[in-house]
Design goal:
The complex is a heterodimer of chains A (395) and B (355). Chain A is mostly beta strands and 395 residues long. Chain A has three helices and 41 strands. Chain B has 355 residues and is mainly beta. In chain B, the strands form five sheets. In chain B, strands 23, 24, 25, 26, 27, 28, 29 and 30 form an eight-stranded mixed beta sheet that branches. In chain B, strand 1 and strand 2 form a beta hairpin. The chains are: A mainly beta (395), B mainly beta (355).
Amino acid sequence: MVKFLVTILICMIPASAFSLSLTGETVWQGEKTIREQVRVEAGATLRIQPDSRIVFDGVGLEVAGRLVVRDAVLTGDQWTGITLKGVGIDTMVVGGEISGARTGLTVGGGSPRIEGVTFRNNRIGLELRQKSDATVSGSLFRDNLRVGLFLKDGSTAGVVDNRFERNGKFGVYIYRSTPRRFVGNIFNDNPTGLMISHFGSDPELVENCLTGNEVAVLVDKAARPTLRRNDIRDNKVGLKIHRRSDAVVEQNRVSSNDIGVSIAFSSYPVLHGNDLSGNKAAVYLEHQSRQWEEQLGSATRELEAGKSVFGSQPRQSVSESERKPHQLDGSIDATDNWWGETALDELTRKGADGNLSFIDDGRDRPVFEDGDGSWPLDKVRYAPWRTSPIDWLKE
Amino acid sequence: MKRLGLLFSSLLLLAGCTTESGSGISGELRFAGSAISGATVEVYLKSGKDRKTQPFVVGETGQDGRYQLELPSGNYFIIGKKRENGEDGRPRMLMAECPTNPVAVENGMVEVPPFALQEMGRSGKLVPEPGTALLGRVVSEGEPVTGAFVYVYTEASVDLKGPSYATSVQTDDAGTYRIPLPQGEYWLAARKRGVGGRLGEPTPGDLNGVHPDNPVRLSRGSESRLADLTLRPVSNESFQQQQAAGKFATTETAFVGLVANGDGEPVDGIYLFAYIDSGMVGKPSYISAQTGGDGRFRINLGSGGSYYIGARSNFGGPLEPGEWVGTFDGRADHRADIASGRTVDLGVITVREIW
């Protein structure tokens, strides 16, 4: 049997510096200040023991091997954070806190587990990229300056039962990614709770609770998520579906928001089987016109997408045929929804093509101005409608 | 060696240029592993999308595939082309851009490394021929490497680094790859980055290697199975050496300055890019190391000239949310001029966060 030389470093008292490169087995315990960038080499393991407090003095920790952290505080002032590079499922960060970093934890590829961790006061709490298949559960993302959890580059992570509160811009930002599970998360008091952006972001978002946000869910730039059985209440805007985004919105409770669903710029979502009661405006259309889309949609998008990073040369990563709506009849499909008791009376009185007080569309504002022209605003197709409340969690 | 005339010598006169005695370029064009005769050599003053004018000079290769063109001092972009009928009788276009563009001419003749023309498809990429491919396996310490990127270069002069590869594929679960290609001569390299991406300089711990049989030759209609391509981890030492000797090596000609946010605070982690092309797209000619905590940067340049300067926090690819980006705004077109051997302070380059 081959014997390995195993280095075990157990430090019980404050230390000032560590070697640049860790090989073998290393254990950190107690209070430490790290003043050099540390790297855990492939095949090596770093364990950070419970109740440890590791302060990073402007540097960070990079892991190509294995990291096991339990109930430890990893903190600093503008430190670079922890980077996991293609680590396996045996890397785990469980409990404890990661704070004060530019990006608290960056996961590039791999499939680590992050459970019950508090991410706070980082610029970005946790960033998953390069098709990372990480699992993030039971964690708290609070007071991060920009984003709590950022998924990008085709990450297929599982995101389950986390809480996102008071983050500077976004609780969660899903960018060109489709997480394999996105279930049971709570969003509160964020400017935008959940952002789903760009073509290629097609996640299924199930049974999440979003309350008290400026915008609970923002779907943008040709993203096509499916939202089912989510509870979206008491936000300024429940759902904002923007710039050619065709979300599927089914069996959700979207109620008691200032605006339930805001639809803009050639987006054609499908709203079926939802509880849309109690919003000041259940559905609000803005700059949304079949005619505008047919005449100017493609050209406008190509102009916008045709910007290079620095200049004005064309760049194109998504074809217009992929973005273009395939069926245009000047209406938004919002049939088979429950609009509330008061709304039911109005629906009964005004019928299938009435100008309803809780829907703000082309019946209220027949045209809008854009450039040199005025364009007919689309209408919401709401009939048939539900005549009794929806048990939205069971349907 | 056959010497070829300059078709656009009148342009030189109109531009008031004169060639220094015997200055210019010479080299060889190749195709499918052999020298190619009758190919056109076009010389431009600008690269890429700026190349909207006629070529500055045009020449042709002789029977031995070689060319020689007289040029005044300056930086030039060389393109090789040949339109001909393929073996199936259909017309085809062979083309390639010299991988060492821009080529600097100062005194005397500059020997340009040989480069191979490739058959162009409508997309401008390599067009695989039926039943023609390279096959192989990528290993490390004797074990297959899954998800490594295998890069196919058509030239060795680029050191098999950077984004100038012709195509790339990723190895499967068995560490194997199959790359459909046209017949030709190729150099293969492979990398597996810890973070899994296709682009970016390999850092310590990443796996890196080149094929032991480079260049490999591929015949039309054959599926050539190659020997294993072995990857080895990039060590801290080799990485540091690479940094010192590579694109970040200090030169006598450089732009320096400070990157700051809208509040004037230094921003770290920013790369500075110097393009010769005013469109500022594609591969930059020079790139800085990332700024540190003081926001200071230095872009080391191979020679003086006019450059278009951009700054961003990512190494490449489309802009991502949360990224910092900015340009040198001393001129509206972001251009900065510098003479060889000088250091020019560009002042503060302001970057903004994109969301």
